[in-house]
Amino acid sequence: MDIWSDLDRSKAGEGAAHHLAKRLHQRKIAVRILTPTVPIPINRKGIDWLDVLNQKEVTA
User: Fold this and answer.
1) In the chain, where does DSSP find H-type helix?
2) I need a labelling partner for 19 at 20 to 30 A (CA). Which of 11, 31, 34, 54 fits?
3) CA angle at residue 12 from 10 to 53, to 5 degrees?
4) Which class for 13: exposed (0-12), middle (13-18), buried (19 or more C-beta within 10 A)?
5) What's the structural domain count of the chain?
6) Counts for the chain of helices (H) and strands (E), in that order
7) Quick check: is 41 in a domain?
8) How far is residue 53 CA from its own chain's centroid?
9) Domain assignment of residue 47, given as a range
10) Parallel, antiparallel, or unpaired: how do β-strands 7-8 and 46-47 relate?
11) What local confidence, expressed as pLDDT, does residue 6 receive?
12) pLDDT of residue 55
């Protein structure tokens, strides 16, 4: 199972993802945490996967 984490300056998104991963591991569910690797823009508190897609100009 994949957990798609936000990348926040406060680390809240990553913290929540790790908390969920710990709970899933206790239930014997294998997980991996995916976090955006692009830098957080200076004027933003964080970045999420929709931001990553928008930066790459992906359309649905």
Assistant:
1) 12-26, 49-55
2) 54
3) 95
4) buried
5) 1
6) 2, 4
7) yes
8) 13
9) 2-55
10) antiparallel
11) 96
12) 83
Total count of residues recorded for the chain: 60
* Predicted pLDDT of residue 30: 97
Q: Is residue 37 part of a domain?
A: yes
Q: Which amino acid is at 56?
A: K
CA–CA separation, 22 and 26 (whole Å): 6
CA separation for the pair 12, 44 (Å, rounded): 14
Kindly give, in sequence order, each residue whose CB lies less than 8 Å from that of residue 45, ignoring residues fewer than 6 positions away: 8, 9, 10
Q: Which two tokens stand for residue 13?
A: 């998104």
pLDDT tens for the chain, 60 residues long, are 999 999 999 999 999 999 999 999 999 999 999 999 999 999 999 999 999 888 887 665
What is the phi-psi region of residue 4: left when phi exceeds 0, alpha when psi lies from -120 to 50, beta otherwise?
beta
